[in-house]
Specification:
Chain A is of the alpha+beta class. Helix content of chain A is 46%, strand content 9%. Chain A folds into two domains: 153 residues, 2-Layer Sandwich (Muramoyl-pentapeptide Carboxypeptidase, domain 2), CATH 3.30.1380; 91 residues, no CATH class. The chains are: A alpha+beta, B alpha+beta, C alpha/beta. Chains in contact: A-B, A-C, B-C. Chain A: This is Similar to Saccharomyces cerevisiae YDR472W TRS31 One of 10 subunits of the transport protein particle (TRAPP) complex of the cis-Golgi which mediates vesicle docking and fusion. Chain A: It is found in: Endoplasmic reticulum; Golgi apparatus.
Chain lengths: 319, 191, 711
């Protein structure tokens, strides 16, 4: 592969030692006799915790980057469909990563940082997490609810109504990470591995509704700091679901409804990447549906592959 | 007890593989026999069917091993229909990432773990005297150690994935990843 | 298109043009029915045998008739000939056969109705013709169009005296070593007749079923514990053209009836009274004299010896240009004969007309004599043995125990043979019940067979050897019963416990035998029964429609065979390959049609791709879109509901084992089969892995053999 100017997975400082890594043409390497005596290789990528950082990206920086993506695609593409597909592909690679990251983060016991809460959260119920960490903000608690899978729709909407009044404030900044209050504890004693803080991994979502609720709640909160405005099942076709955002923050500065919708395919891609990698093959499209004060109200229409529905029927329907 | 570990991507392609053979005191390496070295990736590939079956079961339990009954009854995945409330509670309490022992092949045990993105982490556990002979005594799996090992690997994998320059599904050639995995193997599997 | 028949499938190696056909899943039931079909012994005289060998170059009458075993109404020896030149030859033969048949008819009429012997009108001729038509042509012999139970199979074997003289004393069902020798010879034949590119999938299944049929059946071994291979009809043949007379026939019959006195150690479990003697008169149809002699002898045998007679126009004058039929080997034969014929591989030919005549008389034998005899016996045993027990006990267990204990104390029914083995005598109730059950099984009355095995099994608790095979066949009757009846529940609650019980009992009796004689050889007979039981059960499980549920059981038994039975290396590899077949059959019924559609679509795509590839040589490559779209169509629903990868792996293992045995054709076929499964994986190209190494060895083999041939 001549284009390997940057070794894809070795952009960290130790790429010079590349020869000791895995080579797929050769196969597994056996353990070396002196393996345990060697000083372990280090890299920033692997040393940092998946949970400790809280970097918010300023909306303007993100918008500049987004604008670059869009204009370069514009030059490249001949049709709108092609443009939308390519923009969606960008989103997909983000969606697939968020699928792993957010689920993994959700596995961490909510109050594992402090002694008292560790004790209490051994039962990991919704109630205990709320009482043990009273300082956590509403949004976070809400995520935990979703993660535990119990009645998350109700909680999701309640949370939305809480944050609804200040939704503009949230929309003004896009966060790449929204772990706040509980994560602050970790900053003092950075733990490289989170596994010790996980008593039980979050369950993989097997059903359409479960994973959509995770997107509606956790994914949206991670991206935009609020849950999505609605999650609706189509009454006409049973493979269609809609996630609704009243004010998509990323595309708010783009004028012209058609242009804006095309650019929303970036989010479509994120949803699609998230779902497809979890085993829910689908097509995601964006549609504009203004309602009342929300002129930019956008519907992300998710059309699942028929096989997904069939599988659900075979696997989970009671005979 | 040697192990062969691999991360399998969506197209059945290994994106990472490693063999762990543990030194025991002054003994020389107790690795897999040459015959098994040639076959391990295929043995592992063969168990992917069962892993995918378990992947979509509400309570991923391979009846083959839980009941001691060899029926491997995959059509059993619909859980008992009674008591929605109680049921959902028990279902939610089971971990469906770590699948435990999923398969066996002449004394070798195969365990598996599935990440949220559908990556399959699979490991063949050999016996210490595995010369490919038909030793009937199968390997005993320490589930809690094994589970922790897989979780740590999962975390390492996510870290790899967080690197924007790594494309999902590509082989993980990072030596750091490799050395991390090996030290985890020493920590959890060297028993 | 010609029909693809049972015989074509079982002898596929000699019908390679059918390689792309499919075989029905129920094939194993048919093979089983054939494997336990009634056995007919053929006793001939040296004069007759010599005459046959002079005229047709076949050693003996038995050697000739053995080609006609199988389903008589299928007439599989003449399949190729009736279909190819149906019009010209049919007329031809029927022209000639009218003459013959008139004679035959006259004889037959005399047998049944002596009064009408003056009238030989065309009307009676038509009746018999229609009769034959009913049996021969009303049904298609296509493999797909008939239920297995509709055909009556038969097998031929040597005279009973020969069987008893060559009988091994160890009661083995089959010999592992002979099976291995046969396989090796057969594989050599395959190597000779095929190439690496021959479509192999059906051929391999056919090979397995040939192997399977030999493991479950034998025409030469007489088991004391079951009566499947015990002869039911004894054909006694006379050559009329050489002047053999009534006295010759009578003497032969007497010596047959007195076998039990004249043969040393005549087994107690054989009863010549349960074998129907039938005379077979071989005559020349052109000689009026001989025809008349036949009819008078027929009457005489009937009147004085109470024995029926059939007549065969064996000595036909060689008509110019008569079509010679090349006979194929019969499907069920003894292992020794099979081995012999794989070694010499020489053609046997008979005139088409004669072949038809033989089938005609066999039709008569089976439908007019054999089956009525069996039904008579069955209902007699029903009334005399089965019914009294039923009405006496009324299902009360206590009474049953009480009385059966009493009867056991008499123990007169058990007979000790010269080797000190205790057997039930042929006249004992236990053995009669067993016979009743076995014969019901042979005539496809599975329900009756089941109830008989079931009631018998309660009385054999103290005789594990008898108990084990009884339980085994009880389970098999359940599996053979109508397919729709076999449910998951039935498998779990009835069939599997029975089979496991049978296996345990076999185990127990082999351990007992070992204790008593502490010689390891005495345990082997039960091992052969055990192997038979497992291989048979596995195969019948595979024939059920819900393969998702049934394959795990098949796999379990096959793996047990591999770990416990002393099969030879080639036989073992056959089992490994069968395991691969099991896994590829493991398919959830809810997705079966989808997967099948998907497969055909993929096959089509592959074909297209091939074409595109060929076009590319002339045009510019524009294939990239195609390849990416293909990779993404893996079936989400089917995920985890098939065992394709397992199947591929077991095929790979088999390839490795074939390579160890230097069976390169088999290696090549295995590797062809799994090519698609591994092609997209890096595993296929890695030099240090087994797949690459096998491919490497295979291509080196070709180089080596090429060098050998050039030098």
């Amino acid at each position: 592969m001549s284009q390997d100017i940057i070794y894809t997975s070795t952009s960290d400082e130790s790429f010079k030692n590349r020869s000791t890594g895995y080579e797929y043409t050769v196969g597994p390497k056996p353990s070396l006799p002196d393996e345990c005596n060697r000083s372990p290789l280090t890299s920033k990528l692997y040393s940092e915790s998946l949970n400790t950082k809280r970097h918010e990206v300023s909306l303007s920086a993100m918008t500049f980057l987004f604008q670059e993506m869009i204009s370069s695609l514009h030059k490249e593409c001949k049709t709108v469909t092609e443009f939308e597909t390519k923009l969606s592909n960008y989103g997909e690679s983000i969606g697939s990563r968020l699928l792993e990251l957010l689920n993994f983060r959700s596995s961490i016991s909510p109050g594992s940082s402090s002694r008292t809460s560790t004790f209490l959260t051994s039962s990991t119920s919704v109630l205990s997490s709320q009482t043990s960490a009273p300082g956590t903000n509403a949004n976070y608690t809400n995520n935990t609810n979703n993660n535990n899978g119990g009645g998350s729709t109700g909680n999701g909407t309640r949370s939305r109504s809480n944050t609804g009044a200040s939704s503009k404030d949230y929309a003004s900044s896009i966060k790449t990470s929204n772990r706040d209050s509980s994560d602050r504890h970790h900053h003092h004693h950075q733990v490289e591995s989170l596994t010790s803080q996980i008593s039980k991994m979050r369950r993989r979502d097997l059903k359409i509704l479960d994973i959509l609720q995770f997107i509606h709640g956790t994914l949206w909160s991670y991206l935009f700091n609020h849950v999505s405005d609605d999650l609706v099942k189509s009454s006409e076709r049973n493979n269609e679901y809609m996630i609704i955002d009243n004010q998509p923050p990323l595309t708010q500065f783009i004028s012209g409804p058609n242009n804006r919708i095309s650019c929303d395919y970036f989010i479509c891609g994120i949803i699609k990447g998230f779902l497809t990698n979890a085993g829910f093959r689908c097509k995601v499209t964006a549609h504009e549906m203004p309602q009342g004060q929300f002129e930019n109200r956008t519907v992300y229409l998710i059309q699942f592959d028929n096989q997904v529905l069939e599988r659900e029927a075979i696997r989970f329907d009671q005979p | 007890m040697p192990q062969y570990f691999a991360i399998i991507g969506h197209k059945d392609n290994p994106i990472y593989e490693a063999e762990f053979s543990i030194q025991q005191g002054n003994q020389k390496n107790l690795g897999f026999s040459q015959e098994l070295k040639e076959m391990n990736p295929f043995i592992l590939h063969a168990s992917l069917d069962i892993i995918e079956d378990l992947q979509w079961q509400v309570v991923p339990s391979n009846s083959q091993y839980t009941n001691g009954n060899n029926s491997d009854n995959g059509s059993n995945f619909s859980i008992s229909s009674t008591g929605g409330f109680l049921r959902s509670k028990t279902v939610n309490n089971t971990d469906n990432c770590y699948l435990g022992k999923v398969d066996h092949f002449y004394g070798l045990a195969i365990t598996a773990y599935i990440s949220y993105g559908g990556m399959k982490f699979v490991m063949i556990h050999g016996t210490s005297n595995s010369g490919g002979s038909n030793t009937s005594a199968s390997v005993v799996i320490d589930d809690s150690a094994c589970r922790s090992f897989y979780q740590e690997i999962h975390e390492l994998y996510i870290k790899t994935l967080m690197n924007p320059f790594y494309r999902a599904g590509d082989p993980i050639s990072s030596p750091v990843f490799d050395s991390r995995v090996r030290s985890l193997a020493r920590k959890y599997l060297n028993k | 298109m010609k029909n693809f028949t049972y015989e074509h499938y079982m002898n596929l190696l000699f019908h390679l043009d059918y390689c792309n056909e499919n075989v029905i899943p129920e094939i194993s039931r048919r093979i089983l029915l054939h494997a336990i079909s009634p056995v007919i012994t053929v006793t001939s005289t040296p004069i007759l045998d010599e005459h046959i060998s002079e005229t047709y170059n076949i050693d003996s009458l038995y050697m000739m008739l053995r080609f006609f075993g199988g389903c008589v109404s299928d007439r599989d020896q003449v399949n190729e000939y009736t279909n190819t030149d149906a019009t010209s030859n049919e007329e031809n033969t029927s022209d000639h056969s009218t003459i013959i048949k008139t004679e035959e008819d006259s004889i037959k009429n005399q047998q049944t109705n002596i009064e009408i012997d003056t009238q030989k009108s065309t009307s009676t001729l038509n009746v018999t013709k229609n009769n034959n038509r009913r049996r021969n042509r009303s049904r298609s012999n296509s493999l797909f169009q008939r239920d297995a139970t509709q055909s009556q199979y038969i097998r031929f074997t040597k005279p009973l005296a020969d069987l008893l003289n060559t009988r091994e004393t160890n009661d083995m069902l089959f010999d592992y070593h002979s099976l291995e020798v046969f396989l090796e010879n057969y594989l050599k034949m395959i190597e000779k007749h095929t190439t690496d590119e021959t479509p192999d999938q059906l051929l391999k299944k056919s090979l397995y079923h040939t192997f399977f049929s030999l493991a479950i059946s034998s025409t030469t071994s007489l088991s004391p514990y079951e009566s499947f291979n015990h002869p039911i009809v004894s054909l006694i043949a006379l050559d009329i053209s050489k002047g053999q007379t009534y006295e010759d026939g009578r003497d032969l019959l007497i010596s047959f009836k007195n076998l039990n006195r004249n043969i040393e150690n005549f087994p107690a479990f054989i009863n010549t009274n349960d074998i129907l003697p039938v005379f077979l008169l071989c005559y020349d149809p052109t000689s009026i004299e001989q025809i008349e002699l036949c009819s008078s002898l027929t009457k005489q045998f009937k009147k004085q010896l109470f024995v029926e007679t059939i007549t065969l126009p064996l000595w036909m004058t060689q008509i110019e240009g008569t079509l010679q039929v090349k006979l194929h080997q019969p499907i069920m034969s003894s292992l020794d004969e099979m081995i012999y014929f794989t070694q010499i591989e020489e053609d046997t030919k008979l005139p088409l007309k004669l072949v038809h005549s033989v089938y005609d008389i066999l039709d008569e034998l089976v439908h007019d004599l054999l089956l009525p005899f069996m039904h008579r016996k069955i209902s007699f045993w029903e009334d005399s043995v089965m019914q009294p027990r039923r009405s006496l006990f009324h299902g009360s267990k206590w009474m049953k125990k009480f009385i059966s204990k009493n009867t056991h104390q008499q123990s007169s029914t058990l007979v000790k043979d010269a080797n000190g083995n205790l057997y039930f005598a042929s006249s004992s109730t236990e053995f009669l019940l067993r016979k009743l059950a076995d014969w019901s099984m042979m005539t496809s009355n599975f329900k009756n067979a089941y109830t008989t095995y079931e009631s018998l099994s309660h009385e054999l608790e103290e005789y594990p050897k008898y108990m084990a095979t009884c339980l085994e066949w009880e389970a098999i009757t359940l599996l053979m019963g109508a397919q729709s009846i076999v449910t998951v529940k039935m498998i779990k609650n009835d069939i599997v416990p029975l089979l496991d019980n049978a296996l345990d009992t076999y185990d127990m009796s082999s351990m007992r035998a070992q204790k008593r004689e502490d010689g390891s050889s005495s345990t082997e007979p039960f091992r052969s029964y055990e192997t038979r039981c497992m291989i048979l059960a596995a195969e019948l499980f595979l024939s059920l429609s819900d393969t998702w549920t049934s394959t795990p059981y098949a796999i379990e038994y096959l793996e047990l065979i591999l770990s416990e039975c002393k099969l030879g290396p080639c036989s073992q590899i056959m089992i490994w390959e069968r395991l691969s077949d099991c896994y590829s059959l493991r398919l959830d019924p809810r997705i079966r049609h989808k997967v099948e559609n998907d497969n055909s679509r993929k096959a089509k795509l592959k074909l297209q791709k091939h074409e595109i590839f060929e076009n590319e040589l002339t045009m510019q490559p524009n294939n990239q879109v195609n390849s990416t779209s293909e990779t993404s169509n893996y079936d989400l629903v089917a995920q985890g509901l098939t065992r394709k990868r397992k199947a591929a792996f077991f095929r790979l293992l088999a390839a490795k084992k074939w390579a160890d045995k230097k069976q390169w054709r088999q290696v090549a076929w295995c590797l062809n089969d799994i090519e698609d499964d591994y092609n997209d994986l890096s595993l296929a190209t890695r030099k240090n892995l087994i797949l690459y190494k096998l491919r490497d060895q295979l291509s080196n083999r070709e180089k080596n053999t090429n060098e050998e041939t050039t030098h």
